[in-house]
Write the structure tokens for this entry.
Amino acid sequence: MSVDSIRVSQKEPQVSTDMLQRMYELMWMMRQLDRRAVALQRQGRLGTYAPLEGQEAAQIGSALALRVQDFVFPSYREHAVAYVHGMPLKRILLYWNGRYDGAMPPEGVNLFPVSVPIATQIPHAAGAALAAKLRGLDQIAVTYFGDGATSEGDFHEAMNFAAVMELPLVFFCQNNGYAISLPSRKQTKVQRIAEKATAYGMEGVTVDGNDVIAVYLAMREAVAKAASGGGPTLIEAVTYRMGSHTTADDASRYRDASEVEMWKARDPILRAENALRERGAFSEEWVTQVRKHAEEIVTEAILDMQSEPPVTLDQLFDHVYRDMPKELAIQKQEALSRQAKGESVRG
Amino acid sequence: MANTTLIGAITDALRIALQQDERVIILGEDVGKNGGVFRATEGLQEEFGETRVMDTPLAEAAIIGASIGLAVNGMIPIAEIQFLAFAYPAYEQLVSHVSRIRMRSQGRFSAPMVVRAPYGGGIRAPELHCDSPEVIFAHVPGLKVVVPATPYDAKGLLLAAIADPDPVLFFEPMRIYRSFREEVPEGYYTVPIGKARVVQEGTDCTVFAWGAMVPVALQGADLARKQHGISVEVIDLRSLSPLDRDAIRDSVMKTGRAVVLHEAPRHAGFGAEIVATINDLALDALMAPVMRVTGYDTPYPLFALEDAYMPDAARVAEGIVQAMNYEIGARL
């Protein structure tokens, strides 16, 4: 498979202008959130954060192709997927501020909490897809992971499992060029991660991950295939992580500025803007409104996050088991009385 | 009542669970057509079909990882790991996800499942089939670890595990899968998880054991009685997590001496937790240090050395006698 075979959006518009405007809005909003989150971390007002800048099209294009009932198993960088699938921005921020209430999606939102150990969420999606198949549900599972995850055993075990069992599942790989410092060319010998699907008898598709329409169409096709009993698909969205791996990382240690500049020219938001301009659907008035609205939503989410009451010890003890074991109840009492004493000492 | 072995009781429990609730499915390697390498699932695929009793690819992390997805999406998976020592590739799934999903999502998701795995030595099996690594799972908050020692308990504990709202690791002592039979009630019943069982009452010293070490404890107690006239209490813990600390306290308060017995190596073994529990709850009653009769601090050996490794009745009796003969100050 050559680079030429990467799917890009076709000339013929298959996505309505309304949808393209929605994509733009979401990408713009998530980029603002992302930049604000990085800034908050720098100010010591947020914990270590994994930025998504550059991957907005891959995340939003794919998430918009999902149906509300579909079950999403993300890695740790899919803030835009989470938001599109129904996770409030405030909770996304709470998670990165070290709080479990940020890992809890609202009732009815089929989104698993962030998965930090690489590739471990992939088998979960296989299980959820198997359950959907056994129960005859009109539901598919989707799992998100990066290029680094494709070297892990869990990726291969789950790919094989899903293919053998013909599960309604989409494996969505955001190949953002790097696993922390390791470039994709040192991660895998194949040119395209999508080729790995072949070994499991599965269809693999590579798509331009910075082309939001192309991502959306590829995902919509894979979702429809999975939902109609056609089995799993591996989608590789070729994109680029503009920032560092996390706020604790410094990408300038391992990659050239020229490379980053090259990818800046392929910016997914700029490309969506150009597509809208071609359709005559990008007026200054419209975009000003969009940006103002995004700013309001992001600011509100940050304020909501900051005004959340402090965590209590309930979050530590109450959900280890459904019914708290006796010994744990004793330990909770110890911690509560220690906390009360600490408060009285501080006056 | 049916006269059955421990493994027969397990098959019985699985059949009842499959009959009672259509969300229950069994998945694992060779569990379907072959009925499992020990035949624990024999006949079940034939009876319930391939969508209820499912052969999976040979992939332990995928079996446990998929069980999480199954559980959160409305099924009750019973996963079989062929031998507990083969569960290591799935350890990450168990520790990072199975045990934590309830807490991580603050109760929004939970992964009630049962992971069954034969474990332990004594059957001349090949290398790496015989480990007793139960402590590395008992150390993990969010998991429950249950080990039956009798057919009655095997059935009742397994049905309790399947009904439990949290993930339960159900470790089956393969050495006593078929070593004896007992009368087991027909139909559904449960044995509560987290309650120890007094196997034999005594007044001088308590031996704490579980799984295949329970009969060894009884033999050791018998030897100590016959040779030295010692009255030994034997307690089968049945559940390592949660641990029945009250039962440990009550027995040591009565006897004042204790021996902990396990197949696994001594260093950082589960016996140390029992000793610490005795320190916490019954130190004032102790008349001797708690003795540990365990495997040696070596990897589990190939079977030519198995008998030398494995605690037996003589070593248990020796531990009991040491506890009885201990004189305060003797070690100063």
Q: What stands out?
A: The beta strands of chain A are 71-73, 141-146, 169-175, 178-179, 182-183, 203-208, 233-238. The interface with chain B takes residues 71, 73, 100-101, 103-105, 107, 112-113, 115-117, 120, 122-132, 134-135, 141, 153-154, 157-158, 160-161, 164, 315, 318-323, 325-327 of chain A (CB under 8 Å).
